[in-house]
Amino acid sequence: MADSINLPCRIVRGCKYCKAAGAASCLVRFSTDREYLVDLIGNPGLLSEPDSLLNGLSSMFISSPLWPPKHNSVDVVHNFKSLAKQYFLDCKSLNLMFNDPAAAIDLDAAMGSNRGPNSSHATHSDLQTTLSHIKGDAGRDGNFIRQRSFPEDILSGQRDPFSDVSLSIEDLIIPWSELAVKEKIGAGSFGTVHRADWNGSDVAVKILMDQDLHPERLKEFLREVAIMKSLRHPNIVLLMGAVTQPPNLSIVTEYLSRGSLYRLLHRHGARENLDERRCLSMAFDVAKGMNYLHKRNPPIVHRDLKSPNLLVDKKYTVKVCDFGLSRLKANTFLSSKTAAGTPEWMAPEVLRDEPSNEKSDVYSFAVILWELMTLQKPWSNLNPAQVVAAVGFRGRRPEIPSSVDPKVAAIIESCWAKEPWRRPSFATIMESLKPLIKTLPPQLQEEN
């Protein structure tokens, strides 16, 4: 709720604020010098004032949190195709051609950190400062960036790094006019999904909810598209391209006829076609796709792994999608800077707004494997705030029925371990699942 009206907030726990180790509260700051606690567990919704240096006598009166937030002005770019091309020229000039897409993420993020939020182009001084910073940090973090050698005339700002570069982006950009958009097939926090025809092929078009992008936001969008475009794996949804012109900013991917795994698992009569062996096979598909992402250098962390973000084709092959959209989604009840996901599948450290890595995806996989084994919705009896409290602060997990194979139950429990470092890698998960998967009987191989 605080996010929806642009109020800074964070979740806190422990006796410092709540006087009880097992309690949790959402700390909401209503002004620059006063904070209030909103109890989530003991007395849901109760407002109190913690003993904080922020709560001085000068802040007895506060403005209403429902007052429309003030937004900083931004530079609006109308020629988005030119900006898109400039972005890829920038990347090529720095030898980042997305064969190592995650490195491109880090470089672009580093460049963005040295510019104001309203800047649309890197100046020579920006580039010099950024590259000097990268060069100085390279020895401390081997995973930060692979390309560490830059010409001295670029570092000194004497030569335009983009002057001798040419790059075609026609294979990435799809004109909206080439898409024959059909029925709506889904929706999420990023926008809506439609089935469409593109040059005679069935595709899925994800139309972004936020179409009013300023330059930095558009560059983020293009970066995510470039990452997805570079990846090729049987268990990763294939990206065809993107529409980069508002008001139709979209991601275009292959179309998978059975829709999301969530829909498949929780529809009426699911047990008739989904026996344990088939479910384990689909779990193995997820592990293979995620192992591919995590094996990138540095690893690509999904951050929003859940059954609605897994798509299934007509042969019941499961493919991972939306891993590139995690930072483009609308704000959730948690800060969009820390979490982009749905709490039912999110790791406890993410719910607590603590540092996280690829092991948070392993926790999410545990919930998906639990879904596959039980055909139940996780935490269906709790609302999102209660899930945050239960998982993030009380250490609760969904109950594993006694009917689940003990070996599978052991995999689930190891994957949702409290300490992230105790959770196995996806390579280890694959090795654990292999012996449990048997050949499906012929009648289950194909279905009309």
From TrEMBL:
Amino acids binding ATP: K206
A Gene Ontology BP annotation from the UniProt entry: sugar mediated signaling pathway
E.C. number(s) listed in UniProt: 2.7.11.1
Domain (Protein kinase): residue spans on this chain: 179-437
GO molecular-function term, one example from the UniProt record: ATP binding
Catalytic reaction equation(s): L-threonyl-[protein] + ATP = O-phospho-L-threonyl-[protein] + ADP + H(+); L-seryl-[protein] + ATP = O-phospho-L-seryl-[protein] + ADP + H(+)
Keyword match ATP-binding: yes
Keywords: ATP-binding, Kinase, Nucleotide-binding, Serine/threonine-protein kinase, Transferase
Stretches assigned to coiled coil: none
Major enzyme class: transferase
Cleaved signal peptide residues: none
Alphabetized SMART domains for the sequence: S_TKc
The family this protein is said to belong to: Belongs to the protein kinase superfamily. TKL Ser/Thr protein kinase family. RAF subfamily.
PANTHER family xref list: OS02G0527600 PROTEIN, SERINE/THREONINE-PROTEIN KINASE TNNI3K-RELATED
Protein name: non-specific serine/threonine protein kinase
Lineage: Eukaryota, Viridiplantae, Streptophyta, Embryophyta, Tracheophyta
